[in-house]
Design a protein that fits this description.
Rossmann fold, 2 domains, six-stranded parallel β-sheet, alpha/beta, 482 residues, nine-stranded mixed β-sheet, 38% helix, binds adenosine-5'-diphosphate, binds alpha-D-glucopyranose, 19% strand
């Protein structure tokens, strides 16, 4: 089966978050199941250097004001279809934001172009290859189902995966005609979101199936607290909505063989974590304390991630002897609060503002626990990396965090199934008591050790979810044409 993935990022080439990890990992898990995936993504500067090694499959004379090409490149075990459109994508810095920190003003053209060309490839194929179905990811690929819907030609089915409903791709109503969308689609049941045009909404309205990245988030999306205004449409499409849990790439995230660690380790050589812990203490200027856990955070610093709650609980964390290493960037006020905390709690709180892939691996390798206090979390990957690295996840009970971590309450400890700590509601008080429970468990080395070993053997790979995607692909292929 041939599947066209369409996404705005893909690890290890271009990454701002978990979407990239998923796009880079799923095709490799699907290959042994007989699914051949090509990933269409923009040729940003970070990937443009690969263009010269690729094969030009198509030239496009005018794509929203400039020339473009589709170039096929094989790299890192992935088959990429790069949309080379320098006037849209050859820009330095963050792939979504301009130098002023705001969204590029032509993002509708940039990702509208990605969707348009993907829909053409879906209908006509390219270089002798034709997809049996299209798998579009997030708002950047959300217009594909709309383009497929409005054509009179025969089209393959299209699945949309929502990785985060908070990012909807909303633009002025007028962009519809610029992007060649029929006016007839601009209705509350179609692309219209309160008078604006919504890329994600278009995807939800016109795709054959909608998936999201955990079963709990699939249920949460139907509620006003989580649906961000799309809960009505999602309710209407409920029969076609399903949650498939993310996994992780076990080759990239493997404590037994991770070049970013000072010392690799397995469940049988856990004491080697200490060398990684010492390196973190050095890099984050933290004082050693063997009696309390070293917590870490690896995250976008946003209100979604609940890290403002963590700032409120720092006196409690530090008061119990805990230490915290934070790696992240995002909202300026959260960055500033953590920098302030590092001054206030010198030696106990260390912060590095920025994005550093290797350091994120080291933090997983050397910390005792990872904090993920998200207000909502479609799936979350850092808690899965934590499980694999024996770095105990302390998570809010929401979305994929609820689905992946088994709380170490008294009954679960007795049943020997606990893999982490969950808390609810998502408040500073509940987070504080979760940190307290973590410190308590840490003081019982036998109990802690068992949780760590169990976490490390918890299945977090893609096997099960890759089969679920295959089943879904077969189901969608067998659906009657709309
Ligand atoms: P989201 O996609 O919502 O940001 P996920 O947990 O799904 O959250 O994925 C985040 C990904 O980005 C993980 O791979 C995590 O390790 C990585 N990440 C987040 N912030 C940083 C950072 N500052 N430096 C390095 N990696 C980071
Ligand atoms: C989004 C979500 C995150 C999820 C990731 C990959 O960025 O915020 O929860 O893990 O996509 O699906």
């Amino acid at each position: 089966m041939n599947v066209l993935f369409v996404a705005s990022e893909c690890a290890p080439f271009v990454k701002t978050g978990g979407l990239a990890d998923v796009i880079g990992a799923v095709p490799k898990a699907l290959a042994p199941l007989g699914v051949s995936v090509k990933i269409m993504m923009p040729a940003y500067p970070a990937v443009a250097k690969m263009l010269s090694q690729g094969t030009v499959l198509q030239k496009i004379s005018d794509l929203h004001g400039g020339e473009a090409r589709l170039v096929e490149v094989q790299a890192e075990g992935l088959d990429l279809l790069l949309l080379d459109a320098p006037h849209l994508f050859d820009r330095p810095g963050n792939i979504y934001l301009g130098p002023d920190g705001n969204d590029w003003s032509d993002n509708h053209l940039r990702f509208g172009a990605l969707s348009l060309i993907a829909s053409r490839v879906a209908i006509e194929g390219v270089g002798g290859w034709k997809p049996d179905l299209v798998h579009a990811h997030d708002w950047q690929a959300g217009l594909i189902p709309a383009y497929l819907h409005q054509t009179k030609k025969q089209t393959p089915p299209c699945i949309l995966t929502i990785h985060n409903v908070a990012f909807q791709g909303l633009f002025d109503a007028g962009v519809g005609s610029v992007l060649g969308l029929s006016d007839a689609l601009f209705t509350p049941e179609g692309t219209e979101y309160h008078g604006r045009l919504g890329f994600l909404k278009a995807g939800i309205a016109f795709s054959d199936m909608i998936t999201t990245v955990s079963p709990t988030y699939a249920r949460e999306l139907l509620l006003p607290e989580y649906g961000m205004g799309l809960q009505g449409l999602l309710q209407a499409r409920k029969a076609n909505l399903t949650g498939i849990l993310n996994g992780i790439d076990l080759d990239v995230w493997n404590p037994a063989n991770d070049p970013a660690l000072v010392e690799s380790y397995t469940a049988a050589t856990l004491s080697k974590k200490a060398a990684n812990r010492a390196e973190i203490e050095k890099r984050f200027a933290l004082s050693p304390n063997p009696d309390a856990p070293l917590f870490c955070v690896i995250s976008r610093l946003t209100t979604q991630k609940g890290l403002d709650l963590l700032i409120e609980t720092l006196p409690g964390l530090v008061g119990r002897g805990g230490r915290l290493a934070v790696l992240g960037s995002g909202e300026k006020w959260i960055e500033a609060s953590f920098i302030g905390a590092a001054h206030q709690f010198r030696g106990s709180v260390g912060v590095i503002i920025g994005y550093d892939e290797a350091l994120s691996h080291l933090l997983q390798g050397g910390s005792d626990a990872i904090l993920v206090p998200s207000r909502f979390e479609p799936c979350g990957l850092t808690q899965l990396y934590g499980l694999r690295y024996g770095t105990i996840p302390v998570v809010a009970r929401t979305g994929g965090l609820a689905d992946t971590i088994i709380d170490a309450n008294a009954a679960a400890l007795e049943a020997e199934c606990a893999t982490g700590i969950q808390f609810a509601p998502v408040t500073a008080a509940a987070l504080d008591s979760a940190i307290d429970r973590t410190c308590d468990l840490f003081k019982q080395p036998d109990v802690w050790d068992k949780i760590v070993r169990r976490a490390m053997s918890h299945p977090v790979g893609w096997d099960r979810s890759a089969s679920a995607y295959l089943d879904l692909y077969k189901h969608v292929e067998s659906m009657p044409e709309k």
